[in-house]
Amino acid sequence: MKDSPGDGAVHIVEDNERIADMYQKWLSSTYDAVVSYTAEDALEEIADDVDLVLLDRDLPNKNGDEIVDDLRESIDDCVIAMLTATSPSTDLASLDVDDYIRKPVPEEKLLSEADDLLQRLDYDDDLREYLALARRAELLERKYSERMLDDDDQYAELMERLEDLHGEVDLIQLSLSERPELDL
Known about the structure:
Elements: E1 9-13, H1 17-28, E2 32-36, H2 39-45, E3 52-55, H3 64-74, E4 79-84, E5 99-102, H4 107-119, H5 125-143, H6 146-150, H7 153-177
Parallel strand pairs: 1-2, 1-3, 3-4, 4-5
């Protein structure tokens, strides 16, 4: 659980050392930030207690999509965001990431995104999944036509799961609104 913005271990996986070092410098002012420059190093170096992984999608030898799968199998509770210059394709619908951030990204936006993503560690699993799916749906809907998405099986599965979670999220919201100390 993150007590306040600034709590958290962030691991940056980026093969461009100049960019990786710049992100680390920016994030280190607020977080415990470390860098891996290769996919192989990342899989060896990412600690079990990492809170946020910022992952380039286009790494040599092993792409970010494969690393996401490996991380989800080996780390119980972390947030993963693709931080990449690659425009999302419809396969984003089935990619198990919490966010997809396009480069270049300015310092203020990177810090804000990290704060927002780390805050999700405090959320119920259903709410976290709902937010991740909603974000992926939003990105795909901005890029592709409704007709194209209607023909995509992965997008259809994403939307079906999003609809299933909608009821759970409504129940969470209702239970929170019944807590007077939250003043919602």
